[in-house]
Every structure is written in C-alpha cells, then in structure tokens.
Design brief:
The complex is a heterodimer of chains A (117) and B (113). Chain A has 117 residues and is mainly beta. In chain A, 0% of the residues lie in helices and 50% in strands. Classes of the chains: A mainly beta (117), B mainly beta (113).
C-alpha cells in the first residue's frame, strides 16, 4: 500500500524568510501525481501545487516550489518570502490513478507551519 | 471559493442517531470524493463516485453509505453514530481527467455527543 510520511509535525519561520517542508512517499508505481494542500485555521483545504511524476521539471507556483526527487521518493515544498497568511497546516498527498479509475488522494499527517512576524 | 458546496457546516447529534451530509460539486465535475479528518486517523479517503456510480472505496465503515444523484450532488449517510465518528467530513470534486486535482468544500463538522 502506498504511504505518505511527513516527519516534521511543526515548523516555524520568520516573515520574509524561506522554509522547506519535507515529504516522502512509498510506491511501486512509476506513474503518479503528488500534491501539497494547505489548511488554514478556516479549515478549508486549498491546493498549493501539483507535480506529475513523469515530469522531471519541478513545479512552481509563485512563491511555492517543490523539489521532486523520484528515485529518493521525496517531494519537499519550499515557501519563499513567507507571509503571515501562509500560517496553516500543510498536507502532502499522493495519487495513484489506478489506470484512470480514481483520483483518490492519500494524505500525510501534516506539518503545522507558523509564520512569525 | 472552491465552487464545492457542503451543507450543513456544523452538526451536533446524539449517539445512535443517523445524519446526512450533502455536497454539490463544482460545475462540470462528474467526480465526487468523501474524506474524513479526525485527530486520531488524520485525513482518510472514504469513497469516490463518478457520474452516479461508485468508483473506489476506502476505509468507509459499513454504517456509512453514500450516493450520487442524477444532478451530480452527493450525500454521505452516517448511521448508528458513535462518539468516535466525530470528525470533519470533506467533500471534493474533480474533472474527469487522470491526475486531476481535487477541489474541496469547506467541510461539515460533525460532533456526536
């Protein structure tokens, strides 16, 4: 069974600094998708970034970028120029499409990020 | 706003009761997913419906059931409720494309007392 591990339960960063959140996963598949979602205190789940495993280029979305290391099964999220609004729980998620049958997500346990003023 | 609507936002009920959670997906999305978020289990996939048919099942209890209607809205039915069923229940929807990202509703906070 696929698993997702986030080994940092909590992290803290100063405003305007850069922080990296770690995620590793376990799968025997070669074609899959990886995501980072954030959950602010409002509890809404918000998509941050998406990575396709067959693309070697790391995905970026404005201040958010990933370091995808397929061989190491690692998918870390880098947040640059951290802002107070980035304070949230961040979840790493894995998707194995099972031949197109389902896009269900397997989530890690989350990293609680606090951005300090 | 994700475009996914869940009702109600909060629900308090007693043990042994039955409740129904409702979800309307984003316009154009045929897939609806249900997830449960609890302190001890984290975020877990429950069930996936595509255009009215069940596509995949996760760790969903036999006391729980779901369906998707012709207008594509979905309902999650939870019966014989126990204290441990207290959780945040999310609905998400996605396009019919392999690897499509899921967009989540605001969740229904269920408290069983």
């Amino acid at each position: 069974a696929q698993t997702v591990t986030q080994s940092q339960p909590e992290m803290s960063v100063q405003e305007a600094e850069t922080v990296t959140l770690s995620c590793t996963y376990d799968t025997s598949e070669s074609n899959y998708y990886l995501f980072w979602y954030k959950q602010p205190p409002s509890r809404q789940m918000i998509l941050v970034i998406r990575q396709e495993a067959y693309k070697q280029q790391n995905a970026t979305e404005n201040r958010f970028s990933v370091n995808f290391q397929k061989a190491a099964k690692s998918f870390s999220l880098k947040i640059s120029d951290s802002q107070l609004g980035d304070t949230a729980m961040y979840f790493c998620a894995f998707m194995d499409p099972l031949g197109g049958a389902t896009n269900k997500l397997i989530f890690g346990t989350g990293t609680l990020l606090a951005v300090q003023p | 706003d994700s475009g996914v609507t869940q009702t109600p936002k909060h629900l308090i009920t007693a043990t042994g009761q039955r409740v129904t959670l409702r979800c309307s997906p984003r316009s154009g999305d045929l897939s609806v997913y249900w997830y449960q978020q609890s302190l001890d289990q984290g975020l877990q996939f429950l069930i996936h419906y595509y255009n009215g048919e069940e596509r995949a099942k996760g760790n969903i209890l036999e006391r729980f059931s779901a369906q998707q209607f012709p207008d594509l809205h979905s309902e999650l039915n939870l019966s014989s409720l126990e204290l441990g069923d207290s959780a945040l229940y999310f609905c998400a929807s996605s396009r019919d494309r392999v690897g499509a990202e899921a967009f989540f509703g605001q969740g229904t906070r269920l408290t069983v007392v």
